Structure formats: C-alpha cells, structure tokens
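As a warm-up, study this chain.
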Amino acid sequence: MEKQKEHAASPLEKQVVEKEKILKEKEVKLQEYMNDLKRVQADFENYVKRTERDRERSMRMSVHKLLLNLVDVRDDFERAMHAMKNARGSETMTNGMSMIFESFKKVLEHEGVRPIEAVGKQVDPHLHEVVKHLKSDKDDGLIVEEVQKGYFVHDQVLRPAKVIVTKVNDHG
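Now compare it with the structure written out below.
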C-alpha cells in the first residue's frame, strides 16, 4: 500500500506540475513576444535609416537642381560681361558687374561647383557631350572648342561640357 501512495501524486504535487506546465507555456509565449518585439524594433530602425537616406537623397537632388540652374545663370552672366567689355563707354558698369560676377563664382565654388576642363583635352563621354565634329588629319577626339561649359559639383558631373571635337578624315 505504501508503494501505491508513492506513485499517486498528491493534490499539491499535481498543482505544482500544472503550475510548472503553465509557467513553461508562459515562458514560450514570452520568448515569442520578445522575438516579435526585437523584429519590430529592427524593422523600425531600418525604416528610420531608410527614411534618412531618402531625405538626404531628396535634399541632394534639390541642391543639384538649384546648382544646375545657377550655372546656367553664371553662363548668361559671363556672356553679358563679355558683351559689355566690347561695348563703348561701359567701363564703370563692367567693373561693377565683374565684382558681382566674382562674388557669384565664389558662392558656387563654396558649394563645390567647379568647371570641367575641356579645350585641348581628349573627349571623355562622362565629362563631355560632343555636339559637332571637325575633320582633321591628326588628333582624333581632341576638343577644339567648348560650346557650353560643363561643371562638377564635388566629384559628380553636374552638367557635361558641350564640345566640338576633331575627327580624323577617313581616306578609305
């Protein structure tokens, strides 16, 4: 009879076993919640990083568009200055415009805008847009004239230079 008592669980033991079972289930559920929380936290951190990258890219594009418009104004300004220098009696105005133009160029330089070298260089399709070819007996692909200046902004091409390039005559 004593052996039978040992195998039969007391009500207290049954409660302990039941409570341990419930506790294990709760621990499993807690671990699932913790994993879900970690996943949500990682997703949120990735969202924040992605949003920041998108915002920076949008900002760069806006600045890029502004600088592109400003280099067009710079070109117009330079053409006007050249025309004024050739006009009679406009020395005072030319000097004033020159000072404004130099200030404008410094603003662009401060923003990382600098011209692309073209005349006398070999054509580079990443930097130059060929608008015309001139026949030549030598030096294929040499830039002989710049139709429109090109510019870098930092290390990226803001606008390629439009150029006229030599092309070797084909005698065959």
